[in-house]
Amino acid sequence: MRVAVLGAGSLGSLLAGMLAQVQTADVLIHGKGEHGAMMVAKGLHIEGEATFHISQDAALFTLEEVGVPSSLNGTMDAVLLTGKGAAIFDLATLARDLLHPEGVLVCLSNGLGHAEACGAVVGVHRVVAGTTTYAAWRPTPGRVQFAGKGNIILGKIQGGPSAMDVKPLLDLFEQANLAAEWTENGPAAVWMKVLLNIAINPIAAICGVANGALLEPGLFASSLETMLEGARIARQERIHLPNDLELETQLESVLKATAENHCSMLQDVRAGRKTEIEYLNQAVVQHGERIGVRAPMNQMLSAMIAALTPQQDQR
To answer: Does 288 map to a domain?
Structure first.
């Protein structure tokens, strides 16, 4: 099976590296910047929950600044899109070129509205909503710390591929020792991941701490209230979610499982990069405004993250 991972930062590189260890998989890993350049030059090194190296012989590494050979157009059975929200359109356009006519695009990027945006580029009949709770961060370019095991959920969106269409990809995940499952309710899965992101990422970024620090009672209370604010809005939009007690249990479980992880928003703030706040907490605020439901915790966190990166337009 031929799979391309586009927008391979920390998480994308981890997933691509796991897939590249499967002998029956041909994997394209597409990155950018120093991390992408180091992978092209020296391959990809993973350490932490698992330790291994993916050489240039085991996968094809490409760099956004250079481009992908046109000979690969129309050859990919699946594309995993793992880049940040601001890059969705460009990566979806590249995916459209790379995909085989029967291929599928899995949108794993954090935030609301990304699967729909991909559908507008490649056709909704080829798009699968995706989420993952695997945790990874980059200590240095070309190296990824596998900070926590999780799961991958692939979900159907209206007009999108069926479970049968994505079964080969689910089988490949299993061969790569990646826990994955299918749901018929892709939008609910995306909202569930967004609730975890809005509860964890901005608070960890503001405090400058790994995820596990949010288990401290005061920080956990703030994380939980942020999550429940989002849940109230999602339910008003007729998204089926677990009850509040189950949401609290899931938040605690994810924080424990990824205790050593430095979330992507923390990494972005430290590096002075644009964060994904507009697709997470700020998007929740906007969804609430449309239906007349306030989200003051999410609004406050959005403003604070914007203040931490004043050189970037977060709105």
So the answer is: yes
